[in-house]
Every structure is written in structure tokens, then in C-alpha cells.
Design goal:
The longest helix is centred in the C-terminal third of the chain and has 10 residues, at 31-40. Helices cover 28% and strands 12% of the residues. It has one domain. It has two helices and two strands. Strands 1-2 form a two-stranded antiparallel sheet. The protein is an alpha+beta fold and 50 residues long. It has helices at residues 2-5, 31-40; strands spanning 10-12, 19-21.
Length: 50
């Protein structure tokens, strides 16, 4: 789900479906999407700092 909400920040590897972080410091314009991705993450592994 995070890839759909914030595709500039997250991607999914084709070979195993693991989500990878593309941008550890997204722009201010992406903060809302990243926060939403953290809330809906089914594995609850996204942590937003600041």
C-alpha cells in the first residue's frame, strides 16, 4: 500500500515483493503521503521521525 500512496518514496522489488525505501528524506510535499503510508502499513514497519 505504501508504494501506491508514496511511489517516489517507496518501491517494491519484483523478485520477492519486499518494499524498499527510495528516499529517506522526502520533500515537504511528500510528508503527508509518507505519514499516511505509515498509518496504513499492514506490517507496521514504517516509522516517521519529525
Amino acid at each position: 500500500m505504501c508504494v501506491l500512496i508514496a511511489p517516489e518514496v517507496f518501491d517494491k522489488r519484483d523478485e520477492d515483493g519486499v518494499v524498499v525505501l527510495l528516499d529517506a528524506e522526502p520533500s515537504a510535499g511528500q510528508h503527508e503521503a509518507v505519514r499516511e503510508a505509515a498509518v496504513i502499513c499492514p506490517a507496521a514497519v514504517i516509522e516517521v521521525d519529525a
